[in-house]
Amino acid sequence: MSKVLKIKDLKAKIGEKDILKGLNLELEEGKVHAIMGPNGAGKSTLSKAIVGHYDVEITDGDIVYKDKSIKENEPEERALEGLFLSFQNPVEIPGVNNAYFLRTAVNAKRKHEGKEELNAAEFLREMKSKIEELGMKKELINRSLNEGFSGGEKKRNEILQMMMLEPDVIILDEIDSGLDIDALRAVSEGINKMKDGKRSFLVITHYSRILDYIKPDYIHVLKDGQIVHTGGPELVEKLEKEGYESLGSL
Amino acid sequence: MKLDILNALDSKKILKELNASHSKELAASRLVELKLPNKKSEKYRYFDIEPLIQKDWNFTKKEPIQVKTGKSIVIKNGIVEQLSNLEGVEVEMKEFNDIDSQHFDSLYYLSHLLCEKAIIIRVKDETKLNIEHIVTENNCLISYRIVILSDANTHTQIYETYSGDAKDTLLLTGYDIFISRDSTLKFIKNQTINNNSYTPISTNRYKVDSNATFKLGTFDFIKDNGLNIFRVELKESANFDASHLLYANGKVKGGTISEIIHEGKSSNSNQISKNILDNNARGIFDALIRVQNSAKWTKADQNSKSVLLHSGAYMASKPQLEIYIDDLEASHGSTTGQLDEAQLFYLQSRGINKVDAKKMLIIAFANEVISNIDDEYIKNVVHTHFESAYYGKSNLECLETCHSCEDMVLEEN
Ligand SMILES: Nc1ncnc2c1ncn2[C@@H]1O[C@H](COP(=O)(O)OP(=O)(O)O)[C@@H](O)[C@H]1O
Ligand SMILES: [Mg+2]
């Protein structure tokens, strides 16, 4: 099986604090990997490290994506190459129109791939149909990016971007937090539709609830900056019953 | 003529020196009291005023003459070239002496002394009037004044634009605006000043009568020095709403110096200043709100936000509140900083390169005030001018503020 993303002995800190302490993880093409772990374990830090967030300083190890080290690459280069992170807490950007933003992003990617850019009307038709699929209000098209969106609307907006950008590796950081059951269903359906046998998913969560909707192929347990356990879907039930402590450390 | 010689004269001699009529005695004596500014003058401390005061100006008085009529008023190098034939608007050129006796700015008085006849515009009906200023004459002092009198119960919009690229010229102008009871006046100034261009100083007096509303928007995109100065008096239940957008780039100084005086009770003011400063630009927002003891139940908000795009940029933001009563709601604040890192990252993480992401955030910052313009057409023009000043060109095909495509697609089924 081909490994699309390889995290090798990754050590990273935020400020002065060591957070990732020699983390190893490989994502298989076309598979759904779930990372579970307690609050504060370093799950969001890992996702930020992969997409090149300025908070995270990598001190050792490597991130290899499509057989190239990307740890020095700008965030936009990583995105154009097909990495996508759905943020745990998407920022609000007053004054930036949601549709204009997403069209700029989609066209940047199309240009990068040597495709023709979409004009405003073509793009909007596409965006409108995705918005309807996700059960989002149409008015969100013309609002400022995430400004005044409810928690659930923000998460759906992340999924909308994912659907429009068609990335190769999708990282979902706590996508289920703040979602009611209907929203969770709509969001999961959107994600499941993106499965095409090639695209890989990294579903980060500390609740198992989302995994009832997005069936994982592998479960990794992240504790104190390391992956301490890897197993199949059966691990979810064990973690539910016995908690993270039952797995001990490496 | 060097202006600073006036500082040594008494009011009679000032009138004589400037060949001004005796009816301008008040302006002359206020000029004696205030003196022309130098670099130590409180209100001008952030601006390069001294070279303008010390320069030997080539100054000739100009009779405003009218040659034709059209929709808008056109003033070229101080000469009225076209008068408006809009219904409900009366324009005449006449001596005007009902000036503000308490203005803080000596240049306000100087400009009144320099202009024998003012352009007096009386608005009697609901109307939208455009005023075009053209400045092409190099190396001279051009001064003229405009008076706007709105009748009671009228609703007016005035939109002024500037064009021309005169060099080494001082354009000293301004308005005296009187908004009668129960009227609304919207005034939008859209000015782009190119590199190595004339210096505009606009020094104004606004009087907002009871229950009247004045909505002011100044949009200054400057690559050379320029100043907006005003003093506004608010009577009982008057409303004043001001938005200022400044984009300054280069070794330039410019911005707004203002005083908002709450005289009448239950008067409201809301002033917001947004400043985008690049390279060695210095932005000025020196703004006082005074709530007099006659102005109970006043509401006054003032806010200044600035983005510095370069380590050499500097914002002199001085919001000030002077309050003589207890019964009021007032707030003021000022922030200066760089672009928001988290926002920038979010855009980049979606594949938008850093340069474009920055542009998006800057335009968003500016849009918060541009979107206060009610008139859709003017809003788009101002937006385009901002983009041209900022990018060097405008993406006219698809403006960020123009959502006609969205509307079209949203209406499809
Ligand atoms: N910006 C930050 N500044 C300082 N500490 C941080 C920051 N972000 C995260 N941390 C710390 O890093 C640790 C891991 O955080 P995080 O990766 O968000 O955990 P998780 O997503 O697993 O809950 C926590 O102890 C958290 O307090
Ligand atoms: Mg987290």
Name its key features.
heterodimer, A: 250 residues, alpha/beta, 12 strands, 32% helix, B: 413 residues, 2 domains, 8 helices, 20 strands, 19% helix, binds adenosine-5'-diphosphate
* Integer-rounded radius of gyration of chain A: 18 Å
Low-confidence stretches of chain A: none
Order of helices and strands of chain A: EEEHEEHEEHHEHEHEEEH
Helix and strand composition category of chain A = alpha/beta
Residue share in helices of chain B? Answer: 10-25%
Q: What small molecules are bound in this structure?
A: adenosine-5'-diphosphate, magnesium ion
Give the total of domains of chain B. 2
Helix content of chain A: 25-40%
**Mean pLDDT of chain B, rounded to whole units?**
92
**DSSP summary: helix tally of chain B:** 8
Q: Please count the beta strands of chain B (DSSP E, at least 2 residues each).
A: 20
Helix tally of chain A equals 7
Give the helices and strands of chain B as they follow along the chain.
Answer: HHHEEEEHEEEEEEEEEEEEEEEEHHHH
**First CA to last CA of chain A: what distance?**
25 Å
User: What is the SS-derived class of chain B?
Assistant: alpha/beta
Verbal overview:
By secondary structure, chain A is of the alpha/beta class. In chain A, strand 11 (218-223) and strand 12 (226-231) form a beta hairpin. Chain A is globular and about 55 Å long. Chain A has helices at residues 43-51, 75-80, 98-112, 120-133, 151-165, 181-193, 234-242; strands spanning 3-14, 17-28, 32-36, 56-65, 68-69, 83-86, 93-97, 144-145, 169-173, 200-205, 218-223, 226-231. Chain A starts with a strand and ends in an 8-residue tail after the last helix. In chain A, the strands form 3 sheets. A 6-stranded mixed sheet of chain A has the order 6-9-10-3-11-12, with helices on both faces. In chain A, strands 2-1-4-5 form a 4-stranded antiparallel sheet. In chain A, strands 7-8 form a two-stranded antiparallel ribbon. Chain B has 2 domains: 61-338; 339-413, no CATH class. In chain B, the strands form 2 sheets. An 11-stranded mixed sheet of chain B has the order 1-3-2-6-8-10-12-14-16-18-20, covered by helices on one side. A 9-stranded mixed sheet of chain B has the order 4-5-7-9-11-13-15-17-19, covered by helices on one side. In chain B, a hairpin with a 2-residue loop joins strand 2 (73-76) and strand 3 (79-84). The mean pLDDT of chain B is 92. The interface between A and B is large, with 39 and 34 residues. The structure holds adenosine-5'-diphosphate and magnesium ion (MG). Magnesium ion is lined by residues 43-44, 88, 173-174 of chain A. Magnesium ion (MG) binds at residues 43-44, 88, 173-174 of chain A.
